[in-house]
Write the structure tokens for this entry.
Amino acid sequence: MNWVITIMILALLIPIYEAWQDNSIWQKMLAFASIATKTSIMILVVSVLRDDWMIGVVGVLILSVGNAALMLLAHVLRRINDL
Amino acid sequence: MPEILTDEFYILAIALLLPLTACMLVSQVNPYHALVIRGILGAVAALVYALFGAADVALTEALVGTMLSITLYAVAVRSSMSMRLGVLDSKTTEHPLPSMDSVLAALRPPLDKYYLRLEVVPYSNLQDLHTALRDQEVHAICESLEPRQTQPASLTVDDSTLENHEPSYRLHIRVRRLYNILQAALPDAIAHLTYVNVAASSAAASHSTSSIAKPVEGHL
């Protein structure tokens, strides 16, 4: 089961590298969206591995609510580009 | 024992992501990029907290640390890092101002270097424009040096030669730092720059009211 999480960590490094080297703000936002989803899925996988329902509920909440932050931030950034 | 070691391994690998993203965050220069990286840091931190069994801390980090604080910071950065430039509204003035776009285009690159937005505030007449500068509603105003004669359509060929011989705009700037930035970057052929000390002039104008520094000052 350990190699599953190792592969997920390696997959998480891809958008982190993308956020670090890309200078476009929208590319960074896309990398942020990718990382937010990947981390919440990792929380879910860890909760299944440990059979811990409390962490599982938190993972579901972060997965469902986390994209709202992205929407708010994207709207503020879009308004900046309009002016 | 080896099982514990392998169990430790992925926890260690995930925990190492936290200093990695933190180093990325502190190396950012552009404030908006830093905000996005702060969101990434919050997501990784929530993962680490959930991994260590602190479900409540992870939920708080994801909701408050990532969502609420980033939105508030984005609004704060957007409203504070801007230069408000008062101009005469071209629709209401009797003299059309053809090359105002060239001034704005010349202003944008030096301001972009400091991640400042240029916010153009239109005013209907010259008196309102100067009042706005004195009342610290805007950081700078842009006015034409002399009202240009409206020319018949046959003489539009001479327009290019007219524009080239001297700058037709004057920028009054009341923030010293903005004046220094723009004086170094703006070519004199486009606009004359003058620094206006609003605090001194307003104190001289009104002895009765003490001049209180308003929080409109742009922090650079």
